[in-house]
Amino acid sequence: MLLISCPNCGSRDETEFHYGGQAHVAYPENPNDLTDREWAEYLFYRDNTKGTFAERWLHSTGCRQWFNMLRDTVTYDIQAVYPMGAPRPDSAGKPTAETGTASLAADSTTTGTAAPSISGTSIAPTSTGTIAPEGATK
Length: 138
Fold this sequence. Notes:
The protein is mostly beta strands. Helices cover 7% and strands 24% of the residues. A hairpin with a 7-residue loop joins strand 4 and strand 5 (66-72).
């Protein structure tokens, strides 16, 4: 089991927490202007990184607060725990030049300017018209 250090409560057993997905996902600036495909990409397409990955976690049986964690998905090594709205630190625990997309507003978890781009990924439409990710069942 993992021992997760909540920024508010200290170290607790992983059974007290719930995984919330990828951290720093930009909310579309004008969601009503998105096509169905763009909205689906925002909702369902996330990175699946092997190695260091920024994640959102909820301390569901403790303080019930959201926070971000930088964790290695191969070794489960927790490299950093930081509050929502703080920039993503590098693997040594220092904030990076990237400012992140999270808002410091109490009523918001993320902000952003655009929907995710699919150019250069395996989900981009091909000349044959298929849009399934590489390796997906047809």
